[in-house]
Task: structure prediction
Amino acid sequence: MVLVLAVLAGVAVGHYAQGPAPAPAPVSAAWSVPANLDVGAVTAKVSPALVNIEVQLGLDGGGAAGTGIVLSPDGLVLTNNHVVEGAATVRATDVGNGRAYDAAVLGYDRSHDIAVLKLDGASGLIPAQLGDSAKVVAGDGVVALGNAGGLGGKPIVSPGRVTALGQTITASDETTGASETLTDLIQVDADIQSGDSGGSLADAQGRVIGVDTASGAGYQFDEGARAHEGYAIPINQAAAIAAEIVAGRSSSTVHIGPSAFLGLTVVDGGNGQGALIKSLVAGGPAAKVGLKPDLLVVAIDGQPVQSATALIRVMDTHHPGDKLKITVAGQGGRQATATVVPENGPVG
Result:
């Protein structure tokens, strides 16, 4: 089965495609939208606390669309990291008031797929009411809301039920081979689609219990009826990470502020050998010191780099202006070290 993270991207670079993944947890064919789930009431409560996100990507151009959840009246917004990854600019339109705002990425946690934005000049926004994802059980009625299809305007609404808890999926970048594993996710049969990433998974009382993150193509019941499959990050986990970002507290997984830009693209070197340089940005930090395509990055500041994923994780701990000693290996394994000063660049 192949799943995708629910961001709508104009190009694949820098955005995750998901799969293969374990088979979904069984869903009873008798499960349908609960009779006591007032979808209209939930929608009316949750929609004003959402924003539609538009991203212009950096190195390779193109764009992406997703969703965000308003956390504060002055424009703090929770979304998925993969919605803004690779962004040169971010703009968000508040559903509640219809106004568009430039947005800055305060920080992100790649390993848990969470990011926090700050909308420039925002005030009087309607914050979402957050629920307690620890109290969610299989069978609960839910409503997923988001910017499905990247169309903007009012959120697309998809009701359903929680079908399983504690699910694990793996997301991999189709271009670099870098991957992240997301754990403890809420699985639902609501129709989460591309563009819904960062949107709200709400309970029957209109409280946000999860952040819409990934979608599947659906699967067959024995009797032929088709069910949808989607995944959401529990709001307790997402809100805790968001609080760390807002407080400016970096960690082994949380990056605060601008991203460190080397000006190169990499793929896995294979067999844990390093991150293979595929291309460089003309005039970028790596090009300025003479790094070339087909060299393997094997260490940064003496810390081994065994893959594209490892390189990305190391760079998440650095910022523009840091002086980095990058060790590369060429044909025959000969190594050299160059000092590179990263610049401010696209997110992540």
